[in-house]
Amino acid sequence: MPRSAFFHAPTLAALAALGLLAAPALAAPPEGAADLVARSLRSELFSGGSVRMRAHLVLTEKDGKRQERAFSAWAKRDAQGLRRTLVRFEAPAAVEGIAFLMTQREREPDEQYLYLPKFKSTRRIAGTAERQGSFMGSDFSYADLERRDVRDATYEALADEPIGGKACAHVVARPKGASAYARVELWIRRDDGVPLRIAMFDADGALLKTTSTKRVRAVGGEPVVVESRTENAKSGHVTELVVDEIVRDDALDDAFFSPANLAR
């Protein structure tokens, strides 16, 4: 599905720079890998407890043409480590007022809703085809934002590999359920669990896209990825996410994260 199809048939995230959690129960991987993956998920965007933020996406075509998307987002993590995320787009005018809601479930499919102000309607995003569609023209699919490919997977620990002079664990995650990826490889910084690189591959072993962490800052005592770059290996399209402001907001209640609130 082309990126522009979003506006006709709805289809931020991982952004690592969109995005965005203490992982639910993980499959039993090799010793030490479960903790590494859980820490990695916690340090991705929208994962540092209850937070609110302002951020923007920079979308760059292979020919250098650029677009930006500015948005505000709120996220809350519950006692079980599952998260709720609400995103409101503010600029440019073509996307102003579009809102997205995601609620993670431990043993049930995650829930995702999209509000389109042009039609004054909220719809649930469901089914494999829609969830594999592009999120706001970015290189993230709706399925990417769930991170279920990593949350619900089997794992293999490979030899450590340094990135940028930092010791990193190299873990291979193989999704259990339906997925666009046959495997996802993560390079996770040993000292704080930040994923410095995430690479996604298809069933033929071809690289599909790579997300690299560019900047990290502490929020509420936890490391959070606040700038990342995702490159589509086939199209050459690039998605950069930059968090302009992020603060803790423990006043967020569950009612704020409801489909009824998307049209506010």
Short description:
The chain has 264 residues and is mainly beta.
| Poorly predicted ranges | 1-31
**Strand content bin:** 35-45%
Structural class of the helix and strand makeup? mainly beta
- Count of domains: 1
Question: Count of helical segments?
Answer: 4
Shape descriptor reads globular
| CATH architectural category | Clam
Look at the structure and give the CATH class. Answer: Mainly Beta
Main-sheet strand order equals 6-5-4-3-2-1-13-12-11-10-9-8-7
The CATH topology? outer membrane lipoprotein receptor (LolB), chain A
Q: Topology as H/E string? A: HEEEEEEHHHEEEEEEE
Structural features, described:
- The model is unreliable at 1-31 (pLDDT under 50).
- 9% of the residues lie in helices and 41% in strands.
- The longest helix has 10 residues, at 33-42.
- It has a 13-stranded antiparallel β-sheet with strand order 6-5-4-3-2-1-13-12-11-10-9-8-7.
- By secondary structure, the chain is mainly β.
- It is globular and about 50 Å long.
- The chain has a single domain (3-261), classed as Lipoprotein localisation LolA/LolB/LppX (outer membrane lipoprotein receptor (LolB), chain A, Clam), CATH 2.50.20.10.
What are the defining features of this structure?
264 residues, mainly beta, outer membrane lipoprotein receptor (LolB), chain A, 13-stranded antiparallel beta sheet, globular, disordered N terminus
